[in-house]
Amino acid sequence: MRPENYVAFFTACGFFVGIIFSVASLDDAFDILMFTLFITFMFYVFVHISIMNFVDMKRISGRIFDKHDYEKTNNSIINDLVLREKRMDIILEKLNEEREELKKNELRERRKNAKRNAS
């Protein structure tokens, strides 16, 4: 139960309630817009006052940030990524070596075939 969810929900509700009441009771487009905005703002203020009085923020966001644990986790993730990067570099080097070897073999085969065809 996060307070942001209440604010978003009641603001959206206020908007739709404002549209319904303004369309039902007013004819001018500007009046409909202003009445809708006013009712939406009233819902917005009401939900903030309710949250301020009824939601205990210390209980919701009272989690203590453990910097040491956070840094330890980040360092282990970074080290793991470095190892993976080294493995990928090795794999890419081997693939490049194999490509070069295949090109050399292909060139040799072409030369042999060219000599056979010339004879």
Please name the defining characteristics of this protein:
119 residues; mainly alpha; 4 helices; 0% strand; elongated
Mean pLDDT: 87
Q: Largest beta sheet, briefly?
A: none
Q: Report the radius of gyration as a whole number of Å.
A: 35 Å
Discrete helix count: 4
Tell me the total number of β-strands. 0
In short:
The chain is 88% helix and 0% strand.
Structural overview:
The radius of gyration is 35 Å and the shape is elongated. The chain has helices at residues 3-25, 29-54, 57-60, 67-118. Helix 1 (3-25) runs antiparallel to helix 2 (29-54). It is mainly α and 119 residues long.
List the helices and strands and how they pair.
Elements (H helix, E strand, L loop, with lengths): L2 H23 L3 H26 L2 H4 L6 H52 L1
Helix pairs in contact: 1-2
